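Support request, please re-run this one:
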Amino acid sequence: MKGNHNLKEKTVRGLFWSILDLLSNQGIQFLIQIILARLLLPEHFGLIGLTIVFIAISNAIIDGGISQALIREQKVTQTDYSTIFYFNLLMSCAVYAALFTFAPMISTFFKEPQLILILRLLSLGSIIHSFSIIQKVQLTKNVDFKRQTKVSIISSVASGIIAVICAFNGFGVWAIVIQTLSMQGIQSILLWLLNGWRPSFVFSYSSFKRFFKFGSRLLAANMISTVYSNIFYLLIGRMYSSSQLGYYTNAVRLSEMASFSLTVALQRVTYPVFSRMQDNQAVLRSSFKRIIKITTFVNFPIMAGLAAIAPSLIHLLFGEKWMAMVIYFQLLCLSGMLYHLHAINLNILQVKGRSDLFLQLSIVKKVIFTFIIIAAVWANLGMIGLVGAAVLDSYLAFLINSYYSGREISYSTFEQIKDLLLISLNTFIMAVVVYASGDIFPDNHLIKLIMQICLGCFVYIALSKVTKSRELMEVWTIVLSFVKRGDKKMKVISK
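Re-run finished. Output below.
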């Protein structure tokens, strides 16, 4: 019982620090993004958007699957860590060489001459990133996100300041390039200093083979997922202007600040924790059920609420010149509502060692997504149709992911939907009320935004109380536990 309590405490603490890490990191970068959006033009962000898919694929190749294999393994030796470290470093160099070589062709494809140097510089980040992978794996295995939070905050603040200074001095798109590279460099240096692990001069083929067998299928699945999750950058960049891509790029970043933070935090924390429960079906199922209900209780109203207040929010933060991104942001929020459910369901497949099924599902989902995109392009629905395709794909993906993960732990898609139905209904009512209030409240965007947020919180909490939502009390209890822990630390410091 004591072990279970300690694991529960460690999970909650790890989730808290992981969410704080991602929110602070996303929040700081978001503030920097707002400043840069005021200083730069939409086409500057569009140029960076053209490189995103290639950089994302590079990172997926370097640490896509083998890192997860290391986290899942109960006992990992120094030889194992060193072997994977050198493999990651070798792959990062190979990826950089490929991007450096193909940069002119990519530039020609998009008809943007500046892309050659931009892509060659940004791809250096893959090599820098490879130095920090094992450090993060070790911290994640220990559910230690406190140190990762410190690293993220420091690197985000420092790189953000550098980027703003560059933008003020007329660097244009290069301010964003410098921000990206400086943040990756600072992160790697700090992780090496704080974690203290160093590679040995050893490479074991047997170790590599053991981890690659499991990780290679995750790598393939992550590669497919990365390509498709970033395919809109390619399509929009090719079919529309850089300004349009700039609107989409910032809409993605704004929507991800909430949904992506919670999703990645859940993936990082639940994966090592679920891995420890993999042999206890009842405990794993119970923990899975509780986590999806609590996180949905938080994520659904946040994403739906953001969609409802989008006009005032974007006008206030980015200014009149960015209002064209409102509709894209709203659609992406609807898609982002389910990201946390994708993450937790797919974690179950990895925990159960079903990397084969993980890969098969990735292929099936992307085939379906391909047909959806083709239909949207064929019907000439424009950019709105393309982004709408992402929303439809997200909901279809949930049905597929939950069906197969449900078979592994005896928790079906129908049961998941049933458990989340009341939360969904309360969220829908809240979002409709908040969106409708936009025509009633004053035209001042700041005042309107504050009033809409307050109204949304009141309506959602009131509905949760009326419907006797158990998740409301659980979330409140978790918040109080951290407030009390913070008070105790402050008292110790004051003494």
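The radius of gyration is 22 Å. Residues 1-237 form one domain.
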